[in-house]
Amino acid sequence: MSDRPIIDIRHAAKSYGSLEVLKDISLQVQTGQIVAIIGPSGSGKSTLLRAINDLDPLSSGEVWLDDIQVNKALPTRQYETHINSVRQNIGMVFQHFNLFPHLSVRDNITLAPKMLKGISKAEADQLAVEQLNKVGLLDRIDYYPSQLSGGQKQRVAIARALAMKPKVMLFDEATSALDPELVEEVNLVMKQLAEEHMTMIIVTHEMGFAQDVCDRVLFMDQGVVVEEGPPDVIFRNPANERTKNFLRKHLKGQH
Amino acid sequence: MGLDFSVVPAFAGVLLTGALWTIAITLSAAVLSFFGGIVFAVIALYAPLVIRYPFRLFAWLFMGTPLLLQLFLIYFGLIQIGIDLPAFVAGVIGLGLHFAVYNSDIIQSGILAVDKGQYEGARTLGLSRIQTLRKVVVPQAVRSVVPPIGNNMIALLKDSALVSVIGVAELTLSSQMAISRTFRPFEFYVAAAACYYVINLGLEAGLRRIERRIQLAR
Ligand SMILES: Nc1ncnc2c1ncn2[C@@H]1O[C@H](COP(=O)(O)OP(=O)(O)OP(=O)(O)O)[C@@H](O)[C@H]1O
Ligand SMILES: [Mg+2]
Predict the structure, then answer these.
(1) pLDDT value for A249
(2) ipTM
């Protein structure tokens, strides 16, 4: 096995006008690693995550998925083809689920595999059953998103992403929009993925979850990675003053 | 002479045939205006400028000139350049394109109202721009604008009477034929109006069913 990282972000920078949102961030993630990104609102967590599949393109710097540069400079047409094939390998889960409301749970899951992988209807159905089984929602296969709870919607969104058999999963505050009692069912699915050694990058405000599940924690503030390390170090014994301050606010009320 | 509706039943067959033609032309034009409206909306929003600008002129012509004139142009005018369409076909094309332009306006607003997260959800799975439009954005946009498009379809039914002028024997022309034989305009126009009313009820019921069916998928 090579030790080339599956995700390699090199000197990522991004500005909106004069606002520097990311300032020279580099990050390597190895296959099977689970990385949490924490930090105050507006620190650039989402922007960094969304740069990985080029949803928010960087101003400068490189993003690599294994041996492919994601944000390659290409003519528009070629770029389209390139990025669509890259994105098939990167699953993404959003705060607001972004399920397709006009499609059943089954069709939400099978739409992309059917269109992009040329699989038959029977294979697609099989895939939907498999993925729904995984997130414990097989009995909802013929429901529409409007008939599901928030937690169920997010589990379907995870199943939809997994159906593409991605190499990496990105989570942008997957549980932030959920009622507190629905958070756990989504966390359980993510924990299960962790046990299966799915490579994951997780932006989260849930320090407890980050501590339980992740191998590494990055603390971001104002567009830079202020501090990073194993969860035990970051949460119990942070070196940086800004990290300490942030954690003091966020760990209050937990444990 | 007083009113005498007893003359009507003798022409029931004529009126019924006319009503069937009205239904046929309305449904055909409705289908054309619906799919045409989707195509026009996508052109208006996404096509390259060299297509978009001529298209705008075309759309403006259809919205800014009388439907009657458009029907004349398609049926009588096109013959001069060698396109000789049957009256029914000319009527469907005229009505269909006219209402497609109106539907396009509505569908465009529906497309623009689709949440940004829907594009992101689709694009992160690897769907292309066009696949995203076709499978995610347009179907949602269309569902969200079914009520105003339904109103257009009711207007279309009523405007279908205009194709009588190019000789399609639909309900209005049929009633006129009955009148020319009996000299009873009041009775037959009222009878025709009653038929339109019944067709309208059917159309509204159909639209309500469609609305109910898509309720879930919103
Ligand atoms: N399209 C945009 N135009 C201008 N500024 C933007 C845009 N998107 C994000 N920003 C700014 O970039 C900064 C970083 O935003 P980002 O969404 O990455 O923060 P975040 O760490 O994810 O915050 P949160 O925890 O609130 O989600 C913020 O100051 C935000 O206002
Ligand atoms: Mg964010």
Answers:
(1) 86
(2) 0.93
